[in-house]
Design brief:
This protein has helices at residues 12-17, 21-35, 38-56, 62-86, 89-109, 113-137, 140-161, 166-183, 186-202. It has 203 residues and is an all-alpha fold.
Length: 203
């Protein structure tokens, strides 16, 4: 199966040094919420969600990890809601990309296969929506990244459900290859070749 099935996190030492940022983000959220600065509030919630996700990776106990991920999900879902309400599609796309990784992290943190499928289903829905907006933006780097994350999310969901939308994944591979070619992204092209080979192995 394709690589990169887990979101990358900063090294432990770097994250430990940033623990004090938690209070900063909480303060920013509180102030901007009070002032009614919706776009700024959404940005602070994005930062807070990323911070909680990083802390979740440091938690040794499953309960502690679950709590950090709950905080991450709560923050990023509010950010998505705010950007959607404001009609800021570019910012919405970025937050949907973030929430995709967060949902996948939650799925990886539980041993309940039914819950894994639910969270991964949410990840697929989020990145598929993000992809629409990234196409509209025309920013190739983000567009290509969204395509790749879409393939990964579909594949992860299929690992839990046993059902893969092969036609959709092949279409994404075609789209991804078309984007990677002009950028001379050899690693990206290799990724899609690997996906195609894995699909052929399932025939």
């Amino acid at each position: 199966p394709p690589p990169e099935f887990s979101s990358r996190r900063r090294d432990t030492r770097s994250c430990l040094k940033s623990r004090g940022l938690g209070d900063v983000y909480k303060r920013q959220v509180r102030i901007r919420r009070g002032l009614g600065l919706q776009a700024d509030l959404a940005m602070s919630l994005n930062n807070a969600s990323a911070f909680y996700s990083e802390l979740a990776g440091l938690e040794g106990a499953r309960q502690g990890q679950a709590e950090r991920l709950r905080q991450a999900v709560e923050a990023i879902e509010e950010a998505v809601s705010l950007y959607r309400g404001l009609g800021l599609r570019a910012d919405l796309a970025m937050s949907l990309g973030t929430i995709t990784l967060t949902y996948r992290a939650v799925a990886e943190s539980t041993e309940d296969e039914q819950q894994q499928a639910i969270w991964l289903g949410k990840a697929v829905e989020s990145i598929e929506e993000a992809l629409v907006y990234f196409r509209e933006s025309g920013v190739v780097q983000y567009w290509a990244l969204a395509v790749r994350q879409c393939v990964i999310s579909h594949w992860m969901l299929a690992q839990r459900t046993g059902e893969l939308d092969v036609e959709r994944v092949l279409a994404l591979c075609h789209e991804g290859e078309a984007l990677c070619g002009p950028m001379q992204d050899k690693e990206g092209l290799a990724f899609y070749r690997q996906v195609r080979q894995a699909l052929q192995g399932q025939d």
